[in-house]
C-alpha cells in the first residue's frame, strides 16, 4: 500500500478518523501490489518469518521489484528488527514510529475495502486458521504434550502424601485414646479410617457389621478387643469430630488415587519412553525438577544421574569427598532391584539410556514406547550379568578360543630316603648323655659330703 497524503499522518492521535470508512481510507492509502499465498502452509511460513524478524524469500522478491521502481520511497514496517534486516540486505530505507503503528491499525480495520475481490466470510475463515497455526507455533503448543500439567500434578501428589500422612497419624492418635487396641489390630490406614467412620464409639462394635471392611478373623479380634478395651470414655461431640477427620482422609485418598491415574496417563502421552524406563513417578519428578521436558532433554546423562542431589554434590566438591552416584533416579525400580555394590554401575547405565529416551520423547514425532522398551531390556540384561558375576554365553569361535585342555600332573613321585634325615652319628648322642649323667651324679656326691662336714 502507498500513502497518498502524508500530511494527514502527522497527527497521530486523530489518524483513526481517516479510517472510519472505506471511502476515507482510499483517500489516504492506495493498493500498490498484492501477492496471494498459495496455501496455509506458505502463509504460516511467511508469518513466522515476520514474527522472528526474518526476511522470507517471497517478501524479498516483492521488495526487490519495489526497489527497482520506487527506490526513493520509504518503507513503513511494524517491526524495527525486520526494518534493519531489509535495510542491510536490500538497501531500502525503512521507518518505524508510533505513526506507523497507528497507520497499520487503520489499514487492518479497512482491509476488505482496500483489497477488492475478497469475500468477507472466506477471509475470516482464512484468518482464523492462520491465527490458530501461528499461535500454536508461538507457544510450541501440542494438546498431547503439555508438560506443565505433569509438573503441577507431581507437586500436588507430593503435597497430598504429606497432608494425608499427617491426617492419618492425627486420626490414629486421637481415636487411640478411646480405643488404643484397634491401631495394633488394623495396620492399613485407609481401612482404619473407614472402620472408625462406620462404627464411631467402640461400644458399637459388638452390634455393628464391618464385614464389608474387615476380614472375618480380624473382625472377631476387633469385637473382642472392644469389650475389654483400656481406652478412656469420650463424648459424642469428640466422636463426631473424629468421624469428620476420617471423612477427610477417605476423600483425600480417593482423590490421590484419581490424581495418580491422571498423572500416569499424562506421562504415557507426553513421555512414553521415559515412563517405561524409570516409571511415571520418577519421570515426572525429573521433568518437574528440570522445569519442562525440553529442558530435561538438554541435560547430559551425567546430570540426569545426579539430578536431585545438588546439595550432596556441592557439599562433596567443597569438602573434596566422593560425589554422589545418583539422585532422583535412585528410586527407579531397576536401581532398587540390584545389590548395593552394583547400584552405581546400574544408575550410570540407566541414566545414559534415560537421556536418550528423554530426547526422543521431547524432539521426536513418534509417540510409541518401543525405544524405551528396548533400552530397558538392555539395562535388565546388564543387571543380570552383573548379578551373575559376569557369566555370559559364548558362541561360535568364542567357544573354541575359550576351550582349555585337560590338566595333567607331569611331576614324578620320589621315594623316601631315611638316610638323609640326619648327618650326626647315633653313638655321639649316647656319649653326651652319659657325660651329663656322670656330671650330675658327681655334683650330688659333693653336696652330700659338704652336708656331712657341716654337721
Automatic annotation (TrEMBL):
Record InterPro entries: Nop56/Nop58, NOP58/56_N, Nop_C, Nop_dom, Nop_dom_sf, NOSIC
GO CC, alphabetical: box C/D methylation guide snoRNP complex; small-subunit processome
Domain Nop: 270-388
Record SMART domains: NOSIC
Compartment list: Nucleus, Nucleolus
Keywords attached to this entry: Nucleus, Ribosome biogenesis
Signal peptide: none
Pfam families xrefs: Nop, NOP5NT
GO BP term, pick one: ribosome biogenesis
GO molecular function (one): snoRNA binding
Principal localisation: nucleus
Keyword Nucleus: yes
UniProt family annotation: Belongs to the NOP5/NOP56 family.
Function comment: Required for the biogenesis of box C/D snoRNAs such as U3, U8 and U14 snoRNAs. Part of the small subunit (SSU) processome, first precursor of the small eukaryotic ribosomal subunit. During the assembly of the SSU processome in the nucleolus, many ribosome biogenesis factors, an RNA chaperone and ribosomal proteins associate with the nascent pre-rRNA and work in concert to generate RNA folding, modifications, rearrangements and cleavage as well as targeted degradation of pre-ribosomal RNA by the RNA exosome.
Cross-referenced PANTHER family: NUCLEOLAR PROTEIN 5 NUCLEOLAR PROTEIN NOP5 NOP58, NUCLEOLAR PROTEIN 58
Quaternary structure (record): Core component of box C/D small nucleolar ribonucleoprotein (snoRNP) particles; the core proteins SNU13, NOP56, NOP58 and FBL or FBLL1 assemble stepwise onto the snoRNA. Interacts with NOLC1/Nopp140. Interacts with NOPCHAP1, NUFIP1, RUVBL1 and RUVBL2; NOPCHAP1 bridges the association of NOP58 with RUVBL1:RUVBL2 and NUFIP1. Interacts with PIH1D1. Part of the small subunit (SSU) processome, composed of more than 70 proteins and the RNA chaperone small nucleolar RNA (snoRNA) U3.
The name this protein goes by in its record: Nucleolar protein 58
Organism: Anas platyrhynchos
